[in-house]
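To: structure subgroup
Subject: Chain for Friday's discussion

All,

I'm putting the inputs and outputs inline so they're searchable in the archive.
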Amino acid sequence: MLDHDWLMRMLELRIGDPWILRLIRKWLGAGILDHGQVTTPDRGTPQGGPASPVLANVYLHYALDLWFEKVVRPRCEGKATLIRFADDFVVLFQSEEDAKRFAAALPKRLAKFNLTLAEEKTHLLPFGRRHWRSGQSHPHYFDFLGFRHHLGTDRKGRMAVVRIPSPKSVRKFLVEVKVWLREHRHDRPRDQQAALARKLGGFYQYFALWHTTLKLHGVQREVLKLWKRTLERRSQRGARTWRLWARHPWFTLPDPKVLHRTV
């Protein structure tokens, strides 16, 4: 949880107007009404607050980003890179010893700012060209920004970092589709088709790399199954074969296409 005193000290480094700082302090300390009881938080930011993501980024910039650039990287024997998006981050090290030292120092650094690591998401993995063998599957992977990253082979037989939609991303999307179909099960089939096509289009837009096509076809099939089941439940005819449904010109969903060709 973000410590308010630390956050204000960080903001004071860049904001000179005391009235702005006072306003932020009052906003952070706004009371929360819960079952008739008002509590005043001394940590964290208001859930859903418009400034919360910005303040969280400022906090991690000073707690993590600058520390990595000014302290960690100069002491590394090999190359080191930090990639952070909001509160998710991946750190790449050329040297295994550098990675181990960082893994040992990171919890202490975050604890100084009253932050903790999510243990279930924190791993030290061997990854990269030295651990890749042509034609062999690599046992290690990590999930980041909705993608599952693992070592694979490109179309020319060279090592490539293969990115596919993570199981969590697929499950979340299918649950959203299922909920939407339940709420709109009485809409006209053509209207359902248009809405489902837009939803799939948004999913494709984010994940459509060249090596995700097979996975995206699987997502398309699952959405068709959910839609078919919804249509059959509202019909007195019950279950029908795929061939019968295919006779309807509207019973179709867009196929995935490669939209991002850079790996």
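Points worth raising on Friday:
DSSP finds eight helices and seven strands in the chain.
The first strand starts at residue 32 and ends at 34.

D.
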